[in-house]
Amino acid sequence: MGKAKEGERRKPKQARAKETVDVLLEAAARLMAEEGSAALTTTRIAKRAGTSVGSVYQYFPDREAIAEALVEDRSLRVAGAARDELRKLISAPVEELMPRSVETLIDLYRENKAVLIDLVDTDPNLRSIAQSLAAELLNFSTYKGYLTHHLEERDREDVELAVRITGLVGVSAARAFVAAPEEPVEKEIFAREVGKMLTRYLSAEED
Q: What is the value of pTM for the model shown?
């Protein structure tokens, strides 16, 4: 196998290496939440993580690599939490699942606002990474199976389109709600109304 190119982020292969990366990313996330993106320097992250600057450079060649890894990590966490919540509601009717899902996404974006909104909005490249991950991770089998069951009279292409559209609208709405300087309405009301909109879309007769 060839050596990694200079400047590439090294991927952890062993349990201890992964643990180190997790500690570094958690330190970076805390700094971002407390002080903003200016605090994401290798020196500050190393100090917060209780390790050396050399340990940071072992996995992250620069600040951009840290930011990208942080966005990827938090996106994966949000997607995993969203999947777990969906599994709890897998037997619920569409009109119940949709608003609950939007409310869950709002809570997850609130918990990860410093990274998935504040940090992402500082760099178009990070925004692209976050959008790509959101599109990919929301297209998961549990949700596809749920909509396939509830849209059993639709063909496969129509169901897959519904998965993409409802996922995109739900995520975009939740993100916009959290990113707003002031919440326009109460969270429960917002989730309910977006949920109604998505339910109507899914209930509409096929042309």
A: 0.84
